[in-house]
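Problem: given the chain below (139 residues), write out its structure.
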Amino acid sequence: MKQSLTIIGLAVEDLGRSLNFYKDGLGWEAGFETEGIAFFQMNGLLFSVVQKKILEDDFERDIQMGGKSVTLAHNVSSKEEVDAVLAKVTALEGATHVQGPVERTWGGYSGYFEDPDGHLWEIAWNPFLKIDAEGFVTL
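Solution.
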């Protein structure tokens, strides 16, 4: 099987609230919206927010909100950008500041927040990653 990841989808309680959160907090714009789901074109993959009820219907079971065993990372180009993005996003209604930003033992600098639905995000600067002008990250 080819090593590939094409879409990351998060369950959300309120699609409008989530769209506003990602737009106001990270500056993202949805590329496609339909009833109950929106997609953001990322650098090589899609990110989606999906109304929780739609996923429960698809899975035919209840799902838990949030993802405390999974983190999503938004890598930026500098420590100063980590500070700025984390401050901006955690100032939004529904966001929870979790930790940092701090210098990491592995050599980077990052902090964590939860979005309004409890999904854990890291805003990070990693000196071992290259980020090109389009936001593609390589080792």
